[in-house]
UniProtKB/TrEMBL annotation:
Transmembrane segments: none annotated. It comes from the Bacteria. This is Putative oxidoreductase/MT0587. PANTHER family: CONDITIONED MEDIUM FACTOR RECEPTOR 1, GERANYLGERANYL DIPHOSPHATE REDUCTASE. InterPro entries: FAD/NAD-bd_sf, Geranylgeranyl_Rdtase_fam, Geranylgeranyl_reductase. Its EC number is 1.-.-.-. One of its GO terms (molecular function) is oxidoreductase activity, acting on the CH-CH group of donors, NAD or NADP as acceptor. Keywords: Oxidoreductase. The keyword Oxidoreductase applies.
Amino acid sequence: MPDPCWLGPAGLDMTDQVFDVVVVGAGPAGGAAAFTAARAGLQVALIDRKTFPRNKLCGGLITGRARRYYHEIFGEEMPFEPQDRKTVVDFRFRGRSVGLINDAPALCMAMRWDMDHLICAKAIAAGTRDFTGCQISEINLNAKFLGLKDGRTIRYGVLIGADGANSSVAKALFGQSFDRTRIGFGLEIEATGDHINPEAPLRIDFAAARWGYGWAFPKRCSTTVGVGGLMARNPDMKTAMAEYLTELGIDCAPKAFKGQFLPFGDFRKVPGRDAMLLCGDAAGLVDPITGEGIAYALKSGKLAALSAVDSLSNNAPATALEGYRRRLVGIHRALRMARWIRPVVFLPALEGAFETTFRRSSTLRQDYLRLMAGEIEYEHILKALALRVPRLLVHAVGAGFRQRQSR
């Protein structure tokens, strides 16, 4: 237990509650951070305005990488029923099949309602103080306290913001939670009915949205269907969603769509300040190609907690960010590589070339799935694409020339 000299000489009001680490947001990133810090012997508070279980917009696809990180943190396998495991994936491009994979690395389906509740419960069982269902009224970074709407004051040594794309901690640090010119946005529904087949393959539709994709993930009781992409390139995402549902034969009114900002690879190079750290979606740690964020949420939550442990053990909480940035080097490197690759997948001028290449190359399709499974990293994909880029560019130039000739 670190010496709480980080509190300084100021006296405390009797309504103050003091913790080594305060985590805001009790999803996968926050739960992993709180669990890790509590297991290290720190006094930890976990704050979320919602009580758990709660609904959360998410496709619910749990990759092999996410399952591996979950095991590293909690020491056990993430629980799934046999029917939650999928090994058949149907790739589409504007509705046209570009490959059906029957032996994909196992991808698992989860409802965030269940998964987040499980992770939050593990953090609390490890000794974290439960402040779920509490709303924050004030974040004072200079005085290092949070005010709750019920009048209580929560003081911290290290503050971890794991409160998603709309992070109140990020807003307190930087004046805004995200950059609207770079953020992604997604719409989603849980489709039910007799026409929904839980045994259907996973379906991923490239170009269902501009600089994005669509997804249909069958589960035991429903199929999660959505579209997502860069918000600046999709001024009418509801139309894209409606067209995608029509393509799938699903009748759903637009008012039923659930929306959420998605930090689609727009990660923060400096994820915090001194003793204030951001992790998960709050730090923009979402894959800019697949849109997957649960794996990096879990991993970054753990890394933020370890950095808090080190800094508090040295009675120097202001050094937490320095240690955290060192630990994030690998994740940031992977995200940079993915951003270099992203235009090959989503740039309109290369769409035709990408479709043709993806349809013809079983290796490329398998590599995409192996990437999601955590069996390979973007460095491998980048090397493979380097051999194909000249052909992609020739195809794009030829397509542009033919388009001009037809006018």
